[in-house]
Model the fold of this input.
Amino acid sequence: MLEFKTFMRLLLLLWVLLVVEGRFLDSSGELITVKGQEFPIKPRPDGRIVGGQRINITEAPYQISLQTRSMHICGGSIISKEWILTAAHCTYGRMASELKVRLGSANTSDGGVLIDVVELVQHEKFNIRNVDYDYSLIKLSQEIELDDTKEIVELPKLKEDFIDGTMCLVTGWGHTKNKTDSEEVLRQTKVPIFNQKECSRRYGLFGGVTERMLCAGYAEGGKDACQGDSGGPLVTEDGVLIGVVSWGYGCARPNFPGIYSRVSYVRDWITEHAKV
Done:
């Protein structure tokens, strides 16, 4: 029989592993995860947008695929000729030398251009436990040659707010049906900004949402970003990047909209590091 101290150490180790992987179980055993892949250390390259449709890269030319070992792990957005904005949980525990960025392609495995990463700037306040301050900047080894497949997305003003119901576009290579089927083509879906107070109430059992977080989706579910879309863009219909795909309860579930990192909240931090 295990001694009490040994048992407690094993219990503590299990808890740490759950926290490090960004995974928590509710009372029914449902998995609560960030919208990455095996957060944060062991990415899976599968998954798609739930309720979305296939698009060409020219329809979202700011979208990139963050990769390691030739596998897609997260999305991201082009914010300058040298810098990409993604989620901190996508780069957590990684070195720049492990990563590459594919730009200018709707396919994660070919097309466009593949560029090395030379620097990672993860937000210093990133909280691995509640996924707060989920922002990371990626510096590329060379400047992007802009064209209709590779464009810089417009950033919001500092602390700029957007009204509830504003329709937004979310793109990525995440799960299409809240399960682990896989595909390499880019997808897009439309979701409205969800009321912040109501969203925080619905996520109350999970600690609610902070002012760095923005909620988007339908109360009835059906459309959402999902695992594999992490770090990708949430863009208004007039082209402003307002959110970074972060976390949520499942994907496209009723009553639980997706959670995004609010870009306007760290507009000054982005300027400080990326000079944009």
The first strand starts at residue 24 and ends at 25.
